[in-house]
Amino acid sequence: MRFEYPIVFPLNQITYVGEDDSQFFTEVHGRRFNALSQRYMLPADEEEIRRSELQHRMLQFLFGGKNYVGPVPQVLIPQDGRERCRVLDLGTGGGCWAIDMADEFPEAEVIGVDLAPIQPREVPENCTFELCDLDQWYLPYPSGHFDVIHARSMHTGIENYTRLLHEIARMLRPGGLVILIEPDSEPIADGKSATELTRCGQPSGMRGWFALWEAYRQCLRDKGVDVNVPPELANLVATTGAFDKIVSQEGNIPIGFWPKDPVALSIGQLAWMNYDIMLPALKPLFLSAGMRDWEAKKLIEEAHQDLYYPLVRPSARLHIVHAFKKA
Ligand SMILES: C[S@@+](CC[C@H](N)C(=O)[O-])C[C@H]1O[C@@H](n2cnc3c(N)ncnc32)[C@H](O)[C@@H]1O
Question: One GO BP annotation here (predicted)?
Fold first, then answer.
């Protein structure tokens, strides 16, 4: 069992997270949070780890049992006499993706990076976890070092996503693969987004649910997060000029028990469970933004009510992009 894993600060200062990792956490309004960044405002506790696992399983269903999109096995063939290929998972959360990838590609070295040491301590030999705030100008990894870089559901902890994309390009080897997956924070009802419904003057059918997501998006904007990163993902990748063969996909993730198709129903159930855990996790963010306790409670309760008894079919849009670093 490994009880140590590195925390990598810029300038390559490395210390190790030992058995007592309490210094890497802080408490905010009754929930445990990471202590490295005040921008990323979802908890780093057992509930959040459970949510991260649910989200991981849901995406595996969506990708037909796979962990990725794009030609990962072909890219993970060692090049230029190197012994091992390298995979980097940015904002690894509970580390499920990194661990599954390490199991699937035992010849590759997989590193998962996050703000908080919430990953299991017992991991495959070829998997390590490191702590680092990725919201900075220079990331502490060498240029051309990785064959695959994956970043999923983590733009809400990043102020300048374009800067992160430039760092990803720097850290990838030529021909290396980047995989980016970001859910849109704009809610969807019966296939129409909040913006589309407003444009045609239609009510959402889920007022509490929509109000919560608008409040969440405002909190993100106040923290300097660009909420348009998910729908703009492919454009952002293209404008770096560093990537080619950019493939962009969009999926509508059903939320709840309404889909008829059995696979979509499984995805919907897992998404529902994910949001059931996520709604109360937003309370510290709302309180920190200055909302009064009763207001935050009401906002979450009404959204929960809509999640439990939806009058329409809710879903969320997922943006998936993969691309190769130009040779
Ligand atoms: C919603 S979770 C997703 C976890 C995992 N990628 C997945 O898809 O299951 C977002 C994770 O990104 C991490 N994160 C967000 N901003 C970050 C940053 N600036 N630096 C490092 N990690 C960050 C958070 O700590 C959190 O664990």
Answer: methylation
